[in-house]
Amino acid sequence: MMTIPIETGTNVTLHFALSLEDGHVVDSNFEGKPATFTVGDGNLLPGFEVALMGLVDGDEREFTITPENAFGQHNPQNVQAVERGNFDDDELEVGAMYSFQNGDGELPGVIVELDDKEIMVDFNHPLAGVNILFRVNILSVSPAQVH
Fold this sequence. Notes:
The protein is mainly beta. The protein has two domains: 11-71 and 128-142, Chitinase A, domain 3 (Roll); 76-122, Beta Barrel (Thrombin, subunit H), CATH 2.40.10.330. It is built from one helix and nine strands. Strands 1, 2, 3, 4 and 9 form a five-stranded antiparallel β-sheet that branches. It has a four-stranded antiparallel β-sheet with strand order 5-8-7-6, with no helix packed on it. It is elongated, with a radius of gyration of 19 Å.
């Protein structure tokens, strides 16, 4: 059987783990069902796909994905003041996540500061601004499906 390297359009089945530099595991499927996707279909961020290019069945690797190639840099403009009256909850606390309606649907935000009048909400992705350790075990690579 011919070994096929990962490239745009190939189908890949893998186990993966996303961790912070301190070792905290953010997401992993090593204990469960592997993920299958087609490279370039938008299911994986491009920065993660680039790291996989050229790998073959059986490869195990760990990559450091920088914020620019993962969930973006933390943008201070994405931290917004929201009037306290917009919250029904009297039990607001720093670190709590709320879902806000915007024109495109729901937007999650994390409370980073609060006082009697307004709440500072961070709308950045929770993993923005951090390096992500991306560990993979490639289970299979197959040619793209021809339609």
